[in-house]
Amino acid sequence: MSKAEILNQFDPDGPGIHGNLFGFPYTPETSNVIIIPVPWEVTVSYHSGTASGPAAILNASSQIDAYVKDIEKAWTLGVTMLPVPEDILQESNRVRELALQQIRIMESGGALVPDDPLLIKINEACENLNIYIKSSTQKYLKEGKLVGILGGDHSTPLGYLRALGEVHDRFGILQIDAHADLRKAYEGFSYSHASIMYNALKLPAVNRLIQVGIRDFCGEEMQVVERSKGRAEIFFDDDLKARKYRGQSWDDICNEIVNRLPPLVYVSFDIDGLDPKLCPNAGTPVPGGLEFQEATYLVKKVVQSGRKIIGFDLCEVSPGHSDWDANVGARILYHLCNWMGVSQKKLNVVS
Fold this sequence. Notes:
Blueprint: H1 3-9, E1 33-38, H2 53-61, E2 71-72, E3 79-81, H3 86-107, H4 117-142, E4 146-151, H5 158-165, E5 171-176, H6 196-200, E6 206-214, H7 219-227, E7 232-236, H8 237-245, H9 250-259, E8 264-270, H10 292-304, E9 308-315, H11 324-343, E10 348-349
Parallel strand pairs: 1-3, 1-4, 4-9, 5-6, 5-8, 6-7, 8-9
Antiparallel strand pairs: 2-10
């Protein structure tokens, strides 16, 4: 069935199609946006569960209403999610058991041994994931598709960032997160979820990293920011709150954040950037954070500024024992897809 036939036959106000992202009737061939699920959580350092995030978000997404008051016929964008790869989940579970051995050594005061065969094996498995993600995203980018990564832990988008770095000479990253993720090989893991932005800054194409909502960080990470000489900049959560307490509007603050970004923007959204009441099962929850509408308003402002969203990831959604985290995550995912679509002129805003 062609996309034109889908648009004629599907009722966006009716019940969605069970098992499809947002209940939409699209396939990869008829979609503008491809969501690649990555059920991977090898290096998580506190609570686990984020490998179950993609499947949980898929299940929760079907009860989202498709109408978006700011965007004309948002449902016509065409969004589909690839099947959750069972082999990746099994490999994550296998290597996670190895990583736990390393984590226990570190947490008991043991010394880091860089050439330890166990650590080498873990890092090789994580690099293999990076290669898989790069290859998978390159395939769809070459087909002219827009791509989003749905983790899994926050290490999962590195391969995608590498792929984008071969397509674009320069782009910036807007990171919404509780953590700076600028540690070098945290706990010995070269591709730790706590090292994603340290690794991203190794890519020459990433010329700006703007971090928003950060409220848990270490001295090593602050040194990385200082040495970046403006390439990386943090909007700390307590500073944002203080500015609002003094009467500054969120709109003004968002304008300042957006003005730091280059024309091409990749959005990296760790769910724990939100207030923990919205994601109580997040692996490393931290008090504070953005409200749902504050986060989505910021993404919207990026697009309204004329900047183009070239890709995104949504990571660290851990379903826990309820569907609340997945419910919130599914709605963040819908916003990211739609505003990327607007920025790429695949959708129109309401005039």
